[in-house]
Each structure stands twice: as C-alpha cells, then as structure tokens.
UniProtKB/TrEMBL annotation:
The lineage of its organism: Bacteria, Pseudomonadati, Planctomycetota, Planctomycetia, Pirellulales. Keywords: Membrane, Transmembrane, Transmembrane helix. InterPro entries: DUF1570. This is DUF1570 domain-containing protein. Residues 336-454 form the DUF1570 domain. The keyword Membrane applies. The chain crosses the membrane at residues 18-35.
Length: 506
C-alpha cells in the first residue's frame, strides 16, 4: 500500500482563476498617498469574479480613496477595499502570552508541560522548548520532564548515516545525477538547483529539509506530551525531491501509474517519501507563466516611466507586484500541505505508531496524515487545523448514511469502493474527519486500535474476512458504534474552519 497525497486542485478551475487574475492587471487602481493605520489581524482578499480567497495575517493600512495596503515579508501588497474583509482576531502571540501567564500562575511542571503541548499544537516549537525548560526548573526529577529533555537532546542531534543508505535510494530512483543533502534526521536525494531560490532566499533542498525537520519536531513532541512517547529512528529518513513534475511522472509511470494523480507519496516497502516541486506541476503552470509575464511587464513599465514614455504606471506596477506575491503564496501553501502530509506517513511508519510492515488500514494512514498536514486554507497553521477542503468533502458525504457510517469507513470500504477521483477525495475527507474526532476525544483508544491492528503484512488480502477483523478490533477498542457515531456527528457539526469562525464574529 502506497500512501499518497491526492491532488485536490481542479486544474481547469485553477486555470480560469489564473486567467482572471491576469486580466485584473489591466485595471488601474488609484492608490492614495495618505494612509490611516487600522489595527487589524487578518485580511481576507477575494478577487472579484472568482471564488478564491487568500487569508493574510499581519498589519494593514486602510488608505484614503478606498484601497488597502498589507505588509508581507516579501513586500507590500495593495488591494481594493471592496475586495477585502478586515477581521480583528486574537493573535497567536497574544494567545501564547495568556497561556504562558496561566502556566506561571500554576507554577508546576505539569502546568508548563501543558503550555508546551499548546505551543506544539500551534506550531510554536521554540516556545514549547522554553516551556519544557521551565518545567525542569520547577521539578528536575519529574518523569515526564526527564522524558521531554531526552527527546529534546535527540531532536537536536544528528543521526548517523552510511553509504548504503544513499546507494539504496539511488537504486530505487535510478538516477545517478541527483545530489545528496542532509539534515539532522533526513537524507534528501534531489536535482534542484544549488543556488539560492529568489523567493525562498536559500537553496530549495535546504528549505525542504527545514520544513521536514519542523514536521519531525511537531510529530514527536505532540505524542510525547500527550503521554505516548514513540520510537525514534536510528538512521536518517529517506526523501527524494524532483525539481520537475515531468520527471516525477516519468518515474511513477514505471513504479505505479496511478500515482500520476498524487502530489507526492510515501512508499512503505522502500521507506522513501517522494516529492516534486509543486510550482512545476501543470496545474500551476499558468500561475508560473502569468507571474513571469507580470514581472516582465512591470520591469518594462518601470524603464518606460524612467524614460518619460508613459505616465501613471505606478498603480499598475504596484498591483502587478501584488498578484505576483499572491501567486507565490498559493504555490508555497500547496507545497507545505503536501510535505506535512507525506512526512507524517513516513514518521508514523518509522516511529512504529503505524507499523511500516504490519499496519495496512488505509483510513487510519490517510486520516492521521491529513490531521497533521498544514492546510493551505487555514489562517494559522498547527496540528489539527481544520482543513476547509477535507471538511467540505466530509459534509457532502455525511448526507449519505451508509457511506458516512463509521463501519463503512473503518473497514476501508470508503477507499476500496471509491470508483472515481471525486470518491477518492471524499474518502480522504471521511478519514480526516474520523481521525480528527478520535485524536481530540479518544486518543487513548485510537492508540490501542493502532497497536492491535499492527498484524498484517504487505501481502494481506483485503477481503470480507479482513474487514470483519478490522471492525471487530475497532469495536473492542471503542465499544458501542451507534453511540460513537452520534458523538462523531455531533462533534463534526460543531467543527468550523478559520474562515467560518471569523465570519461568525460581529
């Protein structure tokens, strides 16, 4: 069984969005020079005529004349006020300050470990480490504190490699020209350029390894702080990154043609995760081409303006820059979602949470990876962030009482009987939804189910006998399924995306 991240983008719809975004470049937007500061936390931008939304956290200026300026690390973005919604929220920084104050008031090791868990779930790894240090100061002999300190030492160390590992990856990929890069816990075979990427400000390989290490830290710290420390790998985990989507497609045609629809995948047998740069995908080709055209047009106008050949081009130049940055953000968010999904598959297998060779329940694999993935549509990303796309597919299938039942999901019929791409995406939605519920409400029983089901090898026949065994094991762990089903549906009715939560604010 190969674990993959199914492509969620409708390429035709994306193409129409790109075309519309480019058409907006001919619009002249008047930007006033006098600005009045609006203390805002979130800017939601909706290009007119599309169903796209881009959510941006940060500082916003509301300008006289009906325009908005947003300062992003890569530059300042300019929008028409009528296409934006500004929402005041409590920033993660403020929430962290409140949680830290609560831990300080508690003054116990457990209070600081609770703070550390909150930090991990909100992607604040540095602050989580600081909370663990505070717990040690309060109670250096605390068993849980000692465990977390031991994990910290391992996270910061580098696992040894060997020439055999590189040789095995090359034998799998069959490409001797690819280069090797290392981080503390990963070895990466890649063919990306060695020079700094103009957007990332570092080589693509280094950026990818940094992202993988962040997923590694979050995954291990989450389970350890919940009371379930996992086995740590004693050799680097193996990763391949293709610079070009076409090269990835050539590779999977020989391996498994069905993977052509995957944005990346993890192969348990070889214990290797395979990725390609999302920017090279034909689904994003329009974005890349439009971005180049915008950049060229912007530079041409700048030169013409300096020569005095045109006037009033400043508005177009600023707006073109805004669209370029939005396109970069869209692609980067997709990249992060794919990497966090597939890295979770690999981490679950190498930690023995979901045994690499003995656990073959697909909904559990995909549900866990979807739970840990950083959804591209979430305002602030962290573990368990609500994925708008996954939630949407869950809600569609929830109207079908049979295909949305717990029994249908846990026996993997939800995947085995998915006859088309839409049904596959709906299966991911159900697996994500059930795992989200069980992770938040019944983690102890879910861990027990994982361990009891680690009994099937790669050759297991997934027939009715196997389905009955899975269902029996699930019932042993969770009890009355009718009661659990009602609890699950009630939980999902209350689950909201960031956008839905913000829309409900007065």
């Amino acid at each position: 069984m190969v674990c993959s991240h199914s492509r969620l983008a409708d390429t035709r719809l994306l193409g129409s969005k790109v075309a519309y975004l480019f058409s907006l470049c001919v619009v002249v937007i008047g930007l006033a020079t006098t600005a009045k500061r609006a203390v805002a936390d979130l800017l939601i931008y909706s290009p007119p005529g599309t169903d796209m939304t881009v959510q941006l956290m940060g500082n916003v200026d509301v300008n006289v004349g009906g325009t908005i300026s947003y300062r992003h690390p890569r530059g300042t973005l300019h929008f028409s006020a009528q296409d934006c919604k500004i929402v005041r929220t409590t920033s993660t920084k403020k929430l962290y300050a409140n949680e830290r104050l609560e831990a300080k008031r508690g003054g116990t090791a457990d209070a600081y470990l609770k703070l550390a868990l909150w930090c991990v779930e909100h992607a604040l790894i540095k602050q989580a480490d600081e909370a663990i240090k505070e717990a040690w100061k309060v109670d250096p002999d605390n068993r849980r504190v000692k465990l977390m300190l031991a994990l910290t030492r391992y996270r910061r160390g580098t696992v040894p490699s060997s020439p055999n590992i590189e040789e095995e990856i090359r034998a799998f990929v069959k490409n001797e020209d690819m280069k090797v890069a290392r981080s503390r816990h990963f070895i990466l075979l890649h063919d990306t350029p060695e020079n700094d990427d103009p957007i990332l400000k570092m080589p693509v390989s280094r950026y990818r390894l940094q992202l993988l290490e962040k997923v590694y830290d979050s995954f291990y710290m989450k389970y350890a702080l919940e009371g379930y420390p996992l086995k740590v790998p004693r050799e680097p985990m193996r990763v391949v990154l293709f610079n070009n989507h076409g090269d990835y497609l050539n590779f999977v045609r020989l391996l498994d043609p069905s993977l052509k629809m995957a944005s990346g995948f993890y192969s348990p047998k070889e214990n290797i995760a395979i990725y390609y740069q999302q920017r090279s995908d034909h689904a994003f080709a329009g974005l890349s081409e439009t971005s180049k055209m915008l950049s060229q047009s912007r530079e041409s106008l700048k030169r013409a303006q300096l020569r005095g050949e045109v006037s009033g081009a400043g508005e177009f130049i600023r707006f073109a820059k805004t669209l370029e940055l939005i396109m970069d953000i869209i692609v980067e968010d997709e990249e992060i979602e794919v990497v966090t999904h597939e890295a979770t598959h690999q981490l679950a297998a190498n930690s023995d949470l979901l045994s690499r060779e003995r656990f073959q329940v697909r909904w559990a694999h995909e549900g866990l990876a979807s739970y840990f993935e950083a959804p591209k549509d979430a305002t602030w990303s962290g573990i368990g962030a609500v994925n708008e796309t996954r939630l949407g597919y869950y809600r569609i299938l929830a109207l079908d009482p049979e295909r949305s039942s717990i029994e249908y999901v846990v026996t993997d019929r939800i995947f085995d009987e998915a006859g088309d791409h839409f049904s596959q995406l709906a299966a991911y939605g159900q697996a994500w939804a059930l795992t989200h519920f069980l992770m938040e409400k019944h983690l102890d029983k879910l861990i027990e189910f994982y361990r009891k089901m680690a009994v099937d090898d790669f050759e297991t026949t997934r027939d009715e006998v196997w389905q009955a065994k899975v269902l029996k094991t699930f019932k042993q762990c969770f009890g009355d399924l009718e009661k659990l089903d009602l609890e699950w549906r009630s939980y999902m009715q209350g689950l909201r995306t960031d956008a839905e939560k913000l829309a409900a604010q007065p």
